[in-house]
Specification:
The chain is mostly helical. 83% of the residues lie in helices and 0% in strands.
Amino acid sequence: MKISALYTLFAILATAANIEVQDIAIRYYSGPYAIAISVGLGTIAGLLLKYMLDKRYIFLFKAENPIHDTQTFLLYSMMGGVTTLIFWSFEFGFNHLYHTRESRYLGAVIGLAIGYVSKYQLDKRFVFKQEIAA
């Protein structure tokens, strides 16, 4: 399977995991900062899933040891910082404008899609630069 198709599939899976975790979190907690907490938990879930899939199937990365893997994950996460701000801006923006769960999730999907396009380039250039798949 081509890397672009595989990357797109993984982005869809990570987005689905993100939204699902958000939805579960909101169902179980509706107190102060519920939306922010759910978005944070969803972000973590999507990040972990996407890292595991990208490192193995997109970039064919094999860590030398647990410390190397942790360092790579931290760099991967840092590269996601800007793209996460894009995603959060869309999600919170749609929530602010339309005040519905569906619109908030639509904003999340749009923001995540934009973020993942730029995230691939960042990861290829800075995170997995020596382990790039053919």
